[in-house]
Amino acid sequence: MTDNTTSAALAWFQQQQTPAGWFDLLTIMIDGMVRNAGEMESQPFLRQMGEQLAQTWPLPESETLGDLEANMNHFLTRFQWGVIGLSVGENGIQIRHQALPVNRDPEQQMRWCNAFCTILEGLYSRWLQAQGGGNNVLLQRERIWSVTDVQFRYFNP
Question: Rounded to whole angstroms, how far apart are CA atoms 95 and 78?
Fold first, then answer.
């Protein structure tokens, strides 16, 4: 694929995930909150919003890691928020989330990624707790591969 073809495909995909109006309002609200309260001070609220979203959209009980991955992807697809892959390692469960929605303004993409990842931390944490995870187990963003590709880790500190 040429760069123009790749850019056109990415633009089309991004348009599907970020509908005009609703996404613009959401990004303005989050950006305003982060600018007014500060990035660190906004994190508890954003994480709580993810937790509330998980309560609104609970996962069905999962028997296997494959079931859990499929159940999580069902909702992420419904939300048009990309796709995850789960893997178990020595240090817990890794969640690789790809095709995250991206802010259309390149200058705002990293701020949006940070805020959205905090929401996902709350969402994933609550979903995993509801599947039998302990309250002392943490879910944190572990690595940012790009603004559309982020890895989280669910572990017992």
Answer: 18
* Domains of the chain with bracketed CATH: 3-155 (3.30.70.2590)
pLDDT digits (tens, 9 = 90+) for 83-110: 999 999 888 999 999 989 888 888 888 9
pLDDT in tens, 107-154: 888 988 999 999 999 999 999 999 999 888 899 999 999 988 999 999
Q: Which pair of structure tokens corresponds to residue 135?
A: 């309250």
What's the CA gap between 53 and 70, in Å, rounded? 18
* Nearest-angstrom CA–CA distance, 156 and 145: 23
